[in-house]
Amino acid sequence: MGICNVTPDSFSDGGKYLDPDAACARVDELIAEGADIVDIGGESTRPGSKPVPSDIQLERVLPVVRHAAKKTCVSIDTTSAKVAAACLDAGAHIVNDVSLLSADEDLARVAGGSGAALILSHARVPQSQMRGFGGYALNAYDDVVKDVLRDWDRAAERAVALGVASEAIIFDPGLGFSKAARHSFELVRRAAQLIAGAKGPVLYGASRKSFLTLIDKDAPARERMGASIAVAIHAARAGARILRVHDVRATRQALDMEIVLGTARRKI
After folding, report:
1. In the chain, where do the E strands start and end?
2. What digits encode the pLDDT tens for the residues 34-90?
3. Angle 49-175-39 from CA coordinates, rounded to 5°
4. Under CATH, which architecture does the 2-267 domain have?
5. For FRET with 86, which of 36, 67, 218, 265 sits at 20 to 30 Å CA-CA?
6. Active-site residue list
7. Closest CA to 46 of 5, 76, 83
8. Contact 54, 47 (CB under 8 A)
9. Bridge-partner residues for 169, per DSSP?
10. Over 60: is that where the pLDDT of 134 sits?
11. What is the pLDDT of residues 102-129, one digit of tens each?
């Protein structure tokens, strides 16, 4: 899953693709690099970001969604049912909800009514109330893996009750959302346990996130590719079905090489 942020303030590439032509060109680039899904968002999800009105989100993303939907599978990254409905009508296939249905339950009704997939990304408060790296209490979770699984189950039950088919739900641990850096690291380290306990396919989105500075404290967002790829490979080995990334070509190369080397090891 390649990322296209049509925003002025996303943590890594804010402002680069705010112009619709630039965003459409970015979509084409992601597809050429090997993205199977393109995730398009008109509202930053970085901790501390302010909500963006639905009409502004739609002004930003609709031309890009229409362009992308002609070429590939499209995910709309929003917590607004109005935005989700319009983008699904424009050809999107997936609703990516970073609020775990806490912002707008109608997201589930919209996804269910259209037959779209729904990504339930773990979070406990809205983005506007989150703080970044290290800003969440370490004792906020008894066991972060077990707690995320429990929260996922509750959200999935609500989604099904609101019309989403259980097989259309994708689970995302929400690395960096309502979590200290060490919580996110633990969700990566114990990926196999988390994925085994999930009641559906799991998406990992570690790309360029601040918790990666646990191993390189001075690295700015655009210089975290090595750590991002390492997490992607680790998650894929553990059984993750989708990887949400900025650097599609580099990640795809690493994963394809991992497959080739794994095949070679089995033949020896």
Report:
1. 2-5, 37-41, 73-77, 94-97, 117-121, 169-172, 203-204, 242-243
2. 999 999 999 987 666 678 899 999 999 999 999 999 999 999 999 999 999 999 999
3. 70
4. Alpha-Beta Barrel (3.20)
5. 36
6. 209, 244
7. 5
8. no
9. 118
10. no
11. 989 999 999 999 999 999 999 986 565 5
